[in-house]
Amino acid sequence: MAASARATASVVVRDFRAGALACAPWLLAGVGCGPVPSDRGPREPLLPHGVDLAAAPDRAPRPIEERIAPATEHRPLLALGHRCADRRTPRLAGAWVLGCDALGRVALAERLADGLRVELSDPAEGVGVAPDSLAAAATGALWRLPDPNPGSAFAPPAPEALASPAFDGAHLAIVLPGRVAISTLGERVQASREAAPLPWFPPALSWPTVLWIDERDQAQSGLDIWRWDAGAGAPRPWVTRPGDQRHVVAADGWAAWLDDEGVWLERLADGARWLHRAEVGFRAPPSLWHGVACWEERDGGESDVACTDGMRMDGEGDQGWPSRWGPWLLFRQGDDTWLATARELTFHADDPHVERLVGGAGFRVRTAWPAPGWCAEVAQAGTWSPAGPVPTGASQTWSIPGEALRLRPGTRGVTCPGETTL
Amino acid sequence: MSHPWLRAAAGLLLAAWGVAVGALFLRLEPSGTLAAIPWGEAATAAGATVVALLACTGAGAALLARLAPRALDDEAGWLRALAVGLVAWGLLSLPAALVFGVQGWVGGLTCAVLAAGWLLRPPVAAPRLSWVEAAVGLGIATPALLCLLAPATETDELYYHLALPARLLMEGHLLGGPWMPNGSRPLALHLPWTWLLGLGGIAAPRAFALALGLALLWGVRLRAQAWWGPRAGLAAPLLLAGSTSFLQELGLAHVDLATALLTLVALEAAEAGCLPLLAITAGGALACKYTSALALAPIFALLAWRALWHAPRGRALGGLTLAGVGALALVAPWWVRNAIEGLHPLFPFAGWNDAGEMAFQFRDRYGAGHGPLDLLLLPWRLIMAAEDHGDTFLGRLQPAFLALAPAALWAAWRDARARTVLAVAATGTLLWASQVQWLRYLLPVLPVAALAAAAGLARLPRWGAVAVGFAFLAGLPANLRPVLRQTAEQAPVALGLADRDAYLDEHLGGWAAVRWVNEHTPPGSTVALLFCWPAWPLDRPWVLGSVEEHVPSRYLLAREGDGALAALRAGGVTWVLRGRVHFLRKTYPFLDEATFRREFVAPEEHLDRLLEAEAVLMFEQGRYQVWKLPPR
Questions:
Q1: Cα B360 vs. chain centroid, distance in angstroms?
Q2: B613 vs A contacts (CB less than 8 Å)
Q3: Cβ contacts (< 8 Å) between B622 and chain A: which residues?
Q4: CB count, 10 Å around CB of B21?
Q5: What pLDDT does residue B31 have?
Q6: Which residues, numbered 441 to 500 in chain B, qualify as contacts with chain A under a Cβ-Cβ cut-off of 8 Å?
Q7: Exposed, middle or buried: residue B479 (CB in 10 Å: 0-12, 13-18, 19+)?
Q8: B616: nearest CA in chain A?
Q9: What is the 8-class DSSP label of residue B69?
Q10: Nearest to A20 by CA among A46, A51, A2
C-alpha cells in the first residue's frame, strides 16, 4: 500500500515516515538517519532529510510552475495589499489569508473558499492568529472573521509587547520586558510570570502551555525555550540544547521550533519528539497545523518550503515564509505571495501527527479541515475504498480503520462516493 | 528708618529672604523640573569646553607672539589666537594618538600642553562685549544651548562627527581604510572632538563647535565694523545668523563653522599681508575640511595676482609660495598617514577603484543644475528655491544676501577691499556651483559673502538699508522655522523632561534595531553596518557604515562579491545591521537605467541573497534588520 500510495502521490507529496528498516535506503544514499539524542522524552528515530524521490538528483531545478503543477494548484495572491510591518504576515488564519495596508498593519482578510474579502477596522501591526480570528496585544482587540469590527476582548492592552502575541481563539500570550503574560477572553486579570524573552520572537501557545525564546542563560547554553503551564507553577527551562533555539510555535497539543540542527516537533501530551535535519531558522518561523509542520530550509543555495506530510515548494528561486492550514500552503517568492493547494493529502498510520490505535487496528487523526467539497478514501490491506465526504469545521477526531487516509477534492456537483466513515 | 545700620540690616534681611525663597523653590517645587535636568553632564561638558577653549587660545597666542605679534594687537587678537590654537591642537593630536593611543587622558594631556602657552604670558586681550552684544549672542545661541544634551539624531553626527570619535575611543587607537573610511579623512578636528567626547561627553564637542560658531559671528562683526563701519558690523553677523544653513550648524558637532572661522582669519591675514598667519589658518582649514579650498583658492589666487603687480615681484611671490607650502605642510601628515597605510592620500574621496569605478559622490544629484543658464540663475534659485531638507541645496539662506547683491557690486566698484572680498566670495561660490551644490559645503565662503554684502549695505542710504531690512525680516520665518521646530522636539529630551527612548523611537530610524543589538548581543561583538547610518548609538565595535551614497557597503559587495559575508566573518564581524534603502530611480535621473541598477539596486539585492543564504535573522523592524553571522 505504502509503495502504491507513493506512486500515486505527486512529486511534492512526500513520505517522511521513519523506522529502522526505512532508514536503510537513506543510509545507502548517504543521508543521515538514526536515533536523535533528546534531552527529554523517549528516543525517537531520526526523520530522513528531505530528498526528492521523483526527480533525478542531477537534474537542474525546474521553474516553480512546472515543479508544483502536477501536485498542487497554485496562484499568486496579488491583491493582498502592501508589505506588512511584521513580516510573518501575509499568513493564514484558518480558512482566511491575512494581508496589510499601506502602513503595514494587518487590515485585509480573504476567505479562501469563496474569495470573500473583509477590510478590518482599527488594524494593528502585530497580531496573533487562530482559525478564523486574530487578536492584537497592543490594543487588546479581537476580530472574529468575517466581522471586520474588533471587540475589546483582552485587558489590559499591552503596547509595550516585545513581539506579536500568540493566540488560540480564547487566550492571548504576550512577551513583555522582563515577563510573559497570559490574558483570557473576557477576563480583566492578566496572569504573568518573570521571564527574559528575546524581543521580536513571539511566544507560542497551546493551552495551557506557553513557550517562548528566553535569553537569560545565553552565555551558557545559547537561546533556550522556556515553558509555563498556566495554573501549574512557575516557568521552567524546557529546551536547553547547545546553540540557539529559535522560532517556537505551538497549537493543538503540538510544538515546533528551529535550531542549528533542524526542525523539532513535539507532541506536548507525552513529550514524543522528532527532529528533521535541515538548514533552517535563518529567517521565518515554522508553521504548524495539527501536528503537521512546514518550514523554509536552505537547499542547494536556494530556500525551499517543506512540510512533514510531504507537501513541498522547491522550484527555481527562493520560496519561504510558509503558512499552512489544511490543503493550503501560503508561501512567498521574492515580493510575491503564492497560495498552493494540494490536490491530495495522505495520512499514514505511522505519521507522527496521527495517533496509532492499540493493536494496529487503524489510527486517529485530530484535525480541523477547512476546505469544503473534498472526498476521503481509506486504504485497507493495500486497497483504497471511498469513504465519503470530508467533514469540515472545528477541530475533530477522525477514526481511520486502515493503514492510510487520502483526501482529494471532489468533482463539483457530484457527491463523494462511499459512506462517511470519518 | 533714620539709622544707616537699621537700613543695612533691613536690606540684608530682605536680600537673605530673596535668596532663601529661590533656594527653597529649587528644593521644594513639586514638578521636579530642575531635578530632571542633567546638571552633572552639563557641568562636565561646560568644564571640558572652557578648558579646551582657554588652552587653544593660550597656545595660539603664544605661537602668534613669536610668529606674527601684530596679529595680537587689536580686539580680534584673541580670535586669531583661538584659530591658531585650534590648528595646533589638531596637529598635536595626530602624534599624540599614534604614540599614546586614543583615550580621554591623552586629550587632557594635549590640552595641558596647549595651555602651557599661557606660561609664556602672550599679550592677548580678552574679548570685550557690550551687554547688547552678549544678549544678542545668547539669543542666537539659545536654541543650540537647549539641545546640547539631546541624543544624536542628525545624520552626519550619527555616522561621522560623533560616531567616529566614539569608535576611536572604544578601540583605543586610530582606525581607517575601506571598512572605516571616515577614519582616513584628515582628523584635525575629529581628534579634538574625540578628546572632548572622552572628557566631557556628547555635549562637549557640540559646545566647543557652538563656541567656534559664535566666535565666527563675532569675528565677522569685528571685520565688517572695522572695514565699513557700524552698520556693516551689524549686518554681517545677522546675515549669517538669519540663515538656516548657518543656524542649524550651531550646537552640532560639525566642522563647517570651525572651517569657516579659519578661512575668515586666513582672509584677514591675506588682507593684512601676514603670511605666517595665512599659512597656519589656510593649512588648518584644509585639514579640517577640504571644502575650505573654495575660499582659500581664490584668496591665494588673488594674492598671486597682486604679487605679480607688486615690487619686488619675486619676493612677494616667494613669500606667497612659502605660505602655500606651509599650508600644505599642515595637511600633509594626513596624506602621508594614508599613503603609509596603502591608501590613496585623498582617501576616502578617492581610491575606491579596486572595486571598479565607484563615485564617492554624484555631483548631479544635488542642487539646481550645472549648465551655463543654471549658473546664471543660481543666485536667484539659491535664495528662492532652496529647501533645508530637499536635494535642492539641502539648506537655506537669507534673502537679504540677494537683496544686497547689487549694493555689493556697487561697493566693489568703489572700494578696493570690498572688491577683494566680493571677488573671493564670487569665485568661491562659482567653484562651489561647479561641484556638489550643498549649502553646507558653501559655509567656508559664506562669512566672506556676508562681508561683501555688508560692504554693500554700508554704501546704501538709510532708506535703502530699511528696504534691505524688510527683505531680512521677510526671510526670518522660513529660515528660523527648521531650527525652532528642531529645538521644540529636542529641548525637552535634552533637559531630561521627556523620555529619551520614546524620542529616539520617533526620531531615529533604526533605533529599535540598534537597541536590540546593544541589549541582546554579547558585549564586544563586532557589528557591520550595511546601507545604514546609525553608528553613534551602537555600544558595540562597528565597521563600514554609510558615507555619501552608501559607498562602503557597495564597495564591499563590489570587491568581495559572493564572499562579502565571508570577508566580514574573517574580519571578526559576527552581526550585521542592515538598512533597506530602496534607492529611488527619480533621485538619479542623470544615470542611465543600467548604471542605476548596477550601482544601487543590484548591490542591495545581492546583499539580501547573501544574508538569506548565510546569516540568521534575529530582529526586524521597519527598514532595519539584525542578522547574526554564524561561523562557517
A1: 20
A2: 298, 301, 303
A3: 85
A4: 10
A5: 84
A6: none
A7: buried
A8: A282
A9: G
A10: A46
Q: Is B601 on the interface with A (CB under 8 A)?
A: no
Grid coordinates given for B293: 579650498
Residue B516 touches chain A, beta carbons under 8 Å: yes
* CB B237, CB B249: distance < 8 Å: no
| Residue listed under C-alpha cell 598667519 | B277
Residue B521 burial (10 A CB sphere; 0-12, 13-18, 19+): buried
Q: Which residues of A touch B625 (CB under 8 A)?
A: none
Please list the ranges in chain B whose pLDDT falls under 70. Answer: 1-2, 311
pLDDT, one tens digit per residue, over A229-280 is 998 889 999 999 989 999 999 999 999 999 999 999 999 998 889 888 889 9
B618 at the A interface (CB within 8 A)? yes
B184 DSSP 8-state letter: G
The candidate with the shortest Cα–Cα distance to A285, out of A251, A310, A314, A317, is A251
Please tell me if residue B617 touches chain A, with a CB cutoff of 8 Å: yes
For residue A282, give the nearest of B516, B609, B612 by CB distance.
B612
* Mean of pLDDT values over A94-107: 93
Do residues A251 and A230 make contact, with C-beta atoms less than 8 angstroms apart? no
Helix (H) or strand (E) holding B97: helix B77-100
Predicted ipTM? 0.85
Locate cell 615690487: which residue? Answer: B311
Strands of A208-267, DSSP E: 209-214, 224-229, 236-239, 246-251, 254-258, 262-267
- What are the cell numbers at A22? 526505512
pTM of the predicted structure, to 2 decimals: 0.88
Grid cell for residue A381: 490491506
CA gap A182, B40 in Å, rounded:
42
- What's the pLDDT tens digit per position in A394-415? 778 888 888 888 888 888 777 8
Give dist(CA A406, CA A379) in Å, integer. 8
pLDDT value at residue A360: 66
Burial of A156 (C-beta count, 10 Å sphere; 0-12/13-18/19+): exposed
Q: B620, A198: Cβ pair inside 8 Å?
A: no
Give, in order, the Cα–Cα distances in Å from A364 to each of A6, A87, A93, A257: 21, 35, 24, 24
pLDDT tens across A36-89, in order?
322 333 323 333 333 222 222 222 322 223 323 336 677 888 777 788 999 999
Cβ-proximal residues to B597 (8 Å cutoff; 6+ apart), any chain: none
Spatial separation of the C-alpha atoms in residues A387 and A372, rounded to whole Å: 15
Q: From CA B116, how far away is CA A284, in angstroms rounded?
A: 62
Beta-carbon count within 10 A of B266 CB: 31
